[in-house]
Design goal:
By secondary structure, this protein is mostly beta strands. The protein contains seven helices and 31 strands.
């Protein structure tokens, strides 16, 4: 098979294979979706319930599917985002279009300002989709834990013309325990009782990827709040991974999305040297390597050149501070595929800012002084499980201003901070000035600081929050409000 044949077959939709046990939407919904009052040409997307297999057990989860069963959406850059979202999931919810910059009333955060989408209700979303990139969509509620998330890929004309195969990988952490119970256990824990905190400070010197190093006598860094039942790549564990057919000697573009609610990973491309070409859907100057950290809410685009020999190439996601891992397998014609254990021989690296310091935007923000500056302090601890953004109550901005925000983390957990409705540029890490990546989610490690700048060009009241779901649900969210 040639790459063009792959592209023709795979690029009509997001290349995410659900488990064979997944339930697709019924024919009645697929037919009914054609009769939506949202207007001609709208793409139909449904919030559904489905069943997948996890560790040999049936798991009832959500899905975001098109009428033909395609997971998620693939759109063309600079075209309208014209989507009729139907709630067939049986309970009220709402979807956030993470990475896009919609009008505020279509952002998808409950009651900010839109109400929840009721069961069996359909709502029409229409706005410019913007430039290309690897994005995703997810519930801005605890339902995100139950896999209410999917890829949202925006492809440019150059993307469509390249002689390369695109492979989308959506990572997730999964628990058979309902999210409400997980949160209640966290809040009832006085010192992380019953939680897996992964590697502690004694392993920091060898594992840390930059930033957040503790001083002598400082409390240990907390890594993982929850011990999950499984870690998924495209809804599957390494016991039954997705195997993607690829061409010998071909070129592959990985579009990797960390949709996990509370787990950071390091993407390991094995013997293949990858070129990181974009983060959070925004192009960066290429960075070569075979290990790339990715925190919750972030995305990585990695280009691979495959060998001509017939070999299977595992693409793994190593859980931070733990030997758990997940991933997919790229299989060339004639390759023998060996079983890969879901637990490795050593814990995954601690995710920090070493890579972030090396990133440079292909299209940086224009140089101009800041009109408004804000300093935020990220606080909280496992004791009582209370997380806050001090200084986050007064983030008033005016349209047209250049905004500068410094975030200092005074807690012992990392916080991937996400701003809705905008893209910002990272310009300072721990006092080191740089022309860093343009993105929408940046990690702030323990005792570390990050400065970002953005242009206030999308009026509304926009969430700025930690993308660790349980930190956000426990208070780590503020709002950038236009006045």
């Amino acid at each position: 098979m040639k790459r063009r044949e792959f592209l023709g077959g795979l690029m009509s939709g997001v290349a995410v294979a659900a488990s064979a046990a997944a339930l697709h939407p019924s024919r009645s919904w697929a037919e009914a979706s054609k009769a939506t009052s949202s207007g001609a040409g709208a793409r139909s997307l449904a919030i559904t319930k489905r069943v997948i297999e996890v560790n040999g057990r049936a798991a009832d989860v959500f899905g975001l599917l098109q009428p033909d069963g395609t997971v998620g959406l693939t759109l063309d850059a600079d075209s309208p985002f014209d989507v009729a979202l139907s709630n067939q999931g049986g309970e009220p919810t709402l979807i956030h279009w993470h990475g896009l910059a919609p009008p505020w009333d279509m952002d998808g955060v409950p009651d900010n300002p839109a109400a929840l989408l009721k069961a069996k209700e359909t709502r029409h979303y229409a706005f410019p989709v913007g430039a290309g990139g690897t994005h995703w969509m997810h519930a801005h509620t605890l339902q995100e834990q139950n896999l209410l998330a999917a890829p949202l890929i925006v492809r440019t004309a150059d993307d469509r013309q390249r002689d390369e195969q695109e492979v989308v990988i959506l990572l997730h952490d999964f628990s058979f325990t309902p999210a409400e119970e997980l949160l209640a256990k966290l809040k009832g824990s006085s010192a992380g009782h019953g939680m897996d905190h992964g590697a502690m400070m004694k392993n920091m010197a060898s594992n840390m990827q930059g930033g957040g190093m503790a001083m002598p006598g400082m409390a240990a860094m907390d890594l993982n709040d929850i011990e999950y039942d499984a870690y998924l790549a495209n809804d599957r564990t390494l016991d039954d991974p997705e195997v993607v057919a690829v061409e010998n000697g071909g070129r592959v573009r990985l579009r990797i999305i960390n949709g996990a609610t509370a787990t950071a990973f390091t993407v390991d491309t094995g013997i293949l040297t990858g070129q990181l070409i974009a983060v959070d859907g925004q192009s960066v100057q290429p960075v070569s390597g075979n290990r790339f950290p990715i925190s919750m809410g972030q995305r990585l685009d990695i280009r691979l050149e495959l060998p001509k020999s017939a070999e299977a190439q595992p693409i793994l996601a190593l859980r931070e501070g733990s030997d758990h891992r997940t991933g997919i397998i790229l299989a060339q014609s004639g390759a023998k595929i060996a079983k890969i254990a879901s637990r490795g021989k050593e814990p995954g690296p601690v995710v920090g800012l070493d890579l972030e310091e090396r990133l440079a935007a292909v299209t940086p923000l224009s140089a101009r002084p800041a009109d408004s500056r804000f300093e935020l302090t990220l606080t909280g601890s496992m004791s009582g499980y209370d997380w806050r953004i001090e200084g986050g109550d007064g983030l008033g901005v005016r349209e047209g201003e250049r905004i500068e925000i410094v975030m200092r983390n005074m807690s012992m957990m990392s916080h991937p901070m996400h701003l809705h409705g905008h893209h910002f540029q990272v310009v300072d890490i721990g006092g080191k000035v740089l022309g860093g990546a343009v993105r929408d989610t940046v990690l702030v490690p323990p005792m570390g600081s990050v400065k970002v700048v953005f242009d206030a060009n999308n009026p509304g009241r926009w969430p700025l929050h930690c993308h660790h779901l349980y930190h956000m649900a426990s208070g780590m969210m503020s709002f950038v409000a236009y006045t």
